Amino acid sequence: MSHEIGQWINEIQTLQEKLASVQSDRDAANESISKWRQLYNTEAIQRRDEAKQARETIAQLKAKIDAAEKNSLPIPGENEAVEIEGEIEKIQSLEELRVLAIDATRERDRALKEVQRLKEAIEEERSNHLQTRKTLTAALGDAVDLLTKAKSASGEGVAAISQTQKLSQLAAEGQLLATEQEPLPQLPEWKEKKID
């Protein structure tokens, strides 16, 4: 009988040690999840700010383009080419031709610089977007791993894991990319769910 009691006591101690280990793992997972949540929220805020700045920059650039189009020389079509030829024939001095050529060259150079600047801004936005997507996909994957470990240790967190897996899958498939018709996605605040 005392031998059975000793076995029970040993088994209880073993279970208590396992429970302490699982609780320690759970606490470590909670701490890690908290850090990831903080990083996620920081990244979300930063990306929202960048998206807002990008929208403002795009609006400013569109306004500049519209203003430049109103102030620039029209692109000659078939009828306009004939009119321009007529204007050139009316030029009587070499000095008038030089002034016209200089103005046209300046306008062309200004337009080319603006086009180049716009191309660079678009490429930078694309690059930033891809980097954000990679970072968030990696963070979501890590969060899924942590939640899976925490779930297996405590048996909870199924809803959070499935939601995170869906977001991770959408991000991996590229479905979270913004289109021109849709506004840029707003990342939600990560609400804390403590695993007990």
Folded structure, characterized:
By secondary structure, the chain is mostly helical. It has one domain. It contains 4 helices and no strands. α1 packs antiparallel against α3. The longest helix has 70 residues. The protein is rod-shaped and about 125 Å long.
Secondary structure elements and their pairing?
Layout: H1 2-71, H2 78-90, H3 94-154, H4 158-173
Sheet with the most strands, sense and barrel status: none
Order of helices and strands: HHHH
Specify the helix fraction band: over 70%
Distance between the termini: 37 Å
Mean pLDDT: 77
Radius of gyration: 32 Å
Number of helices: 4
What portion of the residues fall into strands of 2 or more residues?
Answer: under 5%
| Low-confidence region ranges | 176-182
How many β strands by DSSP? 0
Number of domains: 1
* Alpha-beta content class: mainly alpha
Given the C-alpha coordinates, what overall shape results? rod-shaped
Quickly describe the structure.
With 196 residues, the protein is mostly helical. The chain contains 4 helices and no strands. The longest helix is centred in the first third of the chain and has 70 residues, at 2-71.
Provide tags for this entry.
196 residues; mainly alpha
